[in-house]
Design brief:
The complex is a heterodimer of chains A (283) and B (330). Chain A has 15 helices and no strands. Chain A is an all-alpha fold. Chain A has 2 domains: 35 residues; 212 residues, MetI-like (MetI-like fold, Orthogonal Bundle). Chain A starts with a helix and ends with a helix. Chain B is mostly helical. Chain B folds into 2 domains: 47 residues; 247 residues, MetI-like (MetI-like fold), CATH 1.10.3720. Classes of the chains: A mainly alpha (283), B mainly alpha (330). At the A-B interface, α1, α4, α5, α6 and α11 of A face α1, α3, α4, α5 and α6 of B.
């Protein structure tokens, strides 16, 4: 280090100041989670107490037992619904995005430019533009209150195609041609040579897609109106609206819905962060 | 390479042509059909809806148009320009929706940047090991479903049981029962307190995006520039204002535009926390569209409002593409 002693001193001061601000700021950032979790262990009586307590005076697991036992709230079914939609969409979106991204990057065909620009322009159209006719189409096809209604229209992600085109460009042509000389079919080349090359991008974009699907609210709210086909976010609001006087149960249900998945996302956070910084993608 | 091997290669690849064509046709034609049905068709249908009085409950001809769902031409758009006091309810609500949404976005963007930029700078300045911990803490809410976020914050703002009133009570020594989300008489500088409460929850969840984008951008600034400034005797504030901010300008502008676009489309948190209340003070545009289309079944009107909203978002997206095309030089 060639920095002068003065700047070194100011650097230490700066770092101390940083902690001085960052530590309280992160406590505030974590406060809502803490409030939710602590409240889920309180009795209803304690929650109704004025002024409210922060740490439970009387620690109880009763809320969880009752939420998990509630015949009105078969959490397992809603977990399953959310998982089916999210996994199906991740798989199909990764497949179409990588396949078409690769095709747009490495092949020449008539109308390629026009088609690609058309897909790009789709990225500019917000989802709510097609929300109403989308609902009407699903209604005509009888897919309202059907999980397929959230899967079939979601097979193509314009942004994903764009993203994978960027990645596929860097695959050397020699590698593809060598496989062709060896007699490999085109789809085989995509599956055995292109896909492995796209590995990190698949992981990153897959995680983002999963997160968006798992947390989605508006579109599932429109398509899934019957209780048993609902996903976790919708059932959570439904439950909290039903249980006006049962804040304790709502908090326990919220913890059960939010925390397990939050934990999983936390483990793969690196991929998600990378995806967002790389693409500037927002939910 | 000899001539004979060259021709052999050429022949080989000519033979491949049909295989390649098959592969392309097999992949591209389903794509075109799929997009025609699930994107182009709904888009056109959505535009057409805006010129009709349309309810899915009414019978009609092709796609439900006509008969019970009559053609009204530009009526919906003309109504939108009716600013008089006796305008139909949906028109008044539309005007409220535009106003609330603009207010929301205009407040969210600067507040977001004012928090995320210094925060990114602070996080970037600490030890690598703890850096990751801080980043994770502030990024955590991004990963949570916005519905859960809304329920958490709704409970914090609860008049009797909420954490916020309890904390205020602790400091003032009095019992407070402020109805942050329900009392329409509460305003600060003309902005409803309920809207502020939603902004707090929204910011809390949304900060992580810009934060990690800014941290990545800060890491991209060459160390040499920072060292040079330090040797020249720049202090922390000068460093931030004169070096860091100008260098980050392209990233900041892009982040601001992206934040604004997503702020325009806010729905989840508002619908769960206030459902547009009190007295429509938080009635954002997308909630308005949702209510008219799916609660009141006035889909023609809602489609017309969607087009206006699309134009709003689209104009910001155009700014974004302009920004992306601009060549920035360090």
């Amino acid at each position: 280090m060639t920095a002068s002693p003065v700047s070194r001193k100011s650097l230490t001061f700066r770092i101390n100041l940083a902690y001085f601000i960052l530590v309280p700021a992160s406590l505030i950032a974590l406060l809502p989670f803490a409030w939710m979790i602590l409240s889920s262990f309180k009795t209803l009586k304690e929650i109704r107490q004025i002024p409210p307590t922060f740490v439970p005076q009387e620690f109880t697991l009763d809320n969880y037992v009752r939420v998990l036992d509630d015949p009105d709230l078969p959490l397992g079914i809603f977990y399953r619904n959310s998982a089916i939609i999210a996994f199906a969409n991740v798989i199909q979106v990764l497949f179409t995005s990588s396949l078409f991204g690769y095709i747009f990057a490495k092949f020449e065909f008539k109308g390629k430019k026009a088609l690609f620009w058309f897909i790009l322009s789709l990225m500019m159209i917000p989802h709510q533009m097609t929300m109403i006719p989308g609902y009407l189409i699903l209604a005509k096809l009888g897919l309202i209150n059907n999980l397929l209604g959230l899967i079939i229209p979601a097979a193509i992600d314009a942004f994903g195609i764009f993203l994978f085109r960027q990645f596929a460009r860097s695959i050397p042509n020699e590698l593809l041609d060598a496989a062709r000389v060896d007699g490999a079919g085109e789809f085989y080349i995509y599956r055995r040579i292109v896909l492995p090359q796209l590995g990190p991008a698949l992981a990153t974009f897959g995680m983002l897609t999963f997160m968006f699907n798992w947390n989605a609210y508006l579109w599932p709210l429109i398509v899934l109106t019957e209780k048993n086909v609902r996903t976790l976010p919708i059932i959570l609001t439904w439950f909290s609206n039903q249980q006006v006087d049962k804040t304790n149960l709502t908090m326990a249900a919220s913890v059960l819905v939010i925390l397990p998945v939050l934990f999983v996302f936390l483990l793969v956070q690196k991929w998600i962060v990378e995806g967002i910084t790389f693409s500037g993608l927002k939910g | 390479m000899t001539t004979s091997t060259q021709t052999r290669w050429q022949r080989f690849f000519r033979g491949r042509d049909s295989a390649e064509k098959q592969f392309l046709a097999g992949a591209i034609s389903p794509l075109v059909f799929y997009m025609a049905f699930w994107t182009v068709f709904p888009l056109l249908w959505g535009i057409a809806l805006a010129f009709f009085e349309y309810s899915p409950r009414q019978a009609g001809g092709f796609l439900g148009f006509g008969e019970g769902n009559p053609f009204v031409g530009l009526q919906h758009f003309e109504n939108m320009l009716n600013f008089s006091g006796d305008a139909p309810l949906e028109v008044q609500q539309f005007h409220i929706g535009i106003r609330v949404t603009l207010l929301f976005a205009v407040l969210v963007v600067p507040l977001n940047l004012l928090i995320t930029l210094p925060l990114a700078f602070l996080i970037e300045s600490v030890n690598d090991k703890v850096k990751g911990i801080f980043r994770t803490i502030f990024f955590l809410p991004v990963l949570a479903p916005s519905v859960g976020v809304a329920i958490m914050w709704g409970f914090i703002f609860h008049p009797q049981r909420g954490l916020l009133n309890a904390v205020i009570g602790e400091f003032t020594g009095k019992l407070v029962g402020i109805a942050w989300l329900r009392d329409s008489s509460l305003t600060v500088w003309g902005v409803p307190v309920a809207l502020f409460a939603i902004i707090v929850a929204y910011l809390w969840q949304d900060l992580g995006y810009n934060l990690i984008i800014f941290i990545a951008a800060l890491q991209g600034i060459p160390q040499g520039i920072k060292d040079a400034a330090r040797i020249d005797g720049a202090n922390w504030g000068q460093m931030f204002a004169r070096i860091i901010i100008p260098l980050l300008m392209p990233t900041i502008l892009l982040a601001a535009v992206l934040t604004m676009i997503s702020a325009f489309q806010v729905f989840d948190i508002v619908q769960v926390m206030t459902d547009g209340g009190p007295d429509d003070q938080t009635q954002v545009l997308l909630l308005n569209i949702y209510s008219y289309a799916f609660r009141y079944q006035k889909m023609g009107w809602a489609a017309a409002v969607s087009i206006v909203m699309f134009l709003l978002v689209f104009s910001i997206s155009l700014v974004q593409t302009r920004l992306l095309r601009t060549e920035w030089e360090y």
